[in-house]
Amino acid sequence: MDAWTLTLLLGSAGFAAGALNAIAGGGSFLTLPALLVAGLPPIVANATSALAVSPGYLGSTLGFRAELAQLPRRRLLRETLLSAIGGVLGALLLLLTPSEVFRGLIPWLLLFATALFLLGPWLAQRLVQAGPEGEPSWRNPGLLAVAAYGGYFNGGLGILLMALYSASGEKNLHTANALKNLNSLVLSLLSVLTFVLAGVIAWGPALLMMATATVGGYVGARHARRLSMRSVRTVVVCTGLVMSALFFWRG
Questions:
Q1: pLDDT reported for residue 214
Q2: Does residue 12 register a pLDDT over 90?
Q3: 30 in Cβ contact with 13 (< 8 Å)
Q4: Could you tell me the membrane topology recorded for this protein (predicted)?
């Protein structure tokens, strides 16, 4: 693959991922496969993909400043600390995973994230209806586990966090969304920092995709209201299924 084709592939994937994340999520369905097609080793591709999509979490968190300001400072500190620890643990687990083992896990992880994306609205609705009142004791260990998953593989993270808060009694959707964005930002930053210190980031592709993802996120946010959410979700799910099938086919 020549340099121009490679740049076009990665730039387009970053732009489309930023737009998708701004509208409905699922950007990692595009960034990770593009980096693998570009010839990056699986662990490096996953780490670079995590860095490429991470700037979007900051904007999402800032958009919910008012909701976060209403929460007890002690709760915010506890949950961000758990997210930070989980993000580092997940990143370390990824670094300890043999490259060929992770390559074999990729189609299963993509399929799992696609299923989460497909079932997300139904799952959230069911959990809101069945969620317990108050703050159950298992929320903190659950948050740590979800954060570790996010540090290991980012796909479907937001849906898992929303499901966790819904199931554990958080009735205010905006509060749950604010906490989801904040914890995603924290665990993403810590996991990416771990990858940087371990030297597994491909900086050229990462910087290119970060730049195009930022532009894509801006364009996606401006046009989000013009698009049918059902059609967008269909595109994301089909993309996830196609990518999963391709990686199963390639073995």
A1: 84
A2: yes
A3: yes
A4: Multi-pass membrane protein
Residue 55: Cβ within 10 Å count: 17
Answer whether residue 132 shows pLDDT above 60: no
Residue 49's alpha-carbon distances to 118, 165, 173, in angstroms, are 22, 26, 28
Which tokens hold the place of 242?
Answer: 């196609």
Task: Note whether 57 and 184 are within 8 A (CB).
Answer: yes
- Running DSSP on this structure, what letter comes out for residue 98? -
pLDDT of residue 170: 73
Give the closest residue to 210 by CA, choosing from 7, 6, 15, 36: 15
Taking alpha carbons only, the member of 239, 233, 242, 201 closest to residue 51 is 201
Q: 217 near 18, Cβ under 8 Å?
A: yes
- The predicted pLDDT at position 229 comes to 63
- Each domain of the chain, given as residue ranges in start order, spans 3-250
**pLDDT tens-digit readout, 139-157:** 788 899 999 999 998 777 8
* Farthest-apart Cα atoms in the chain, separation: 57
Segment (H or E) for 1: none
Cα separation, 133 vs 55, in Å, equals 34
Q: Identify the CA nearest to 151 among candidates 217, 221, 215, 198.
A: 198
**Residue 24: pLDDT over 90:** no
Share of the chain above pLDDT 90, in %: 33
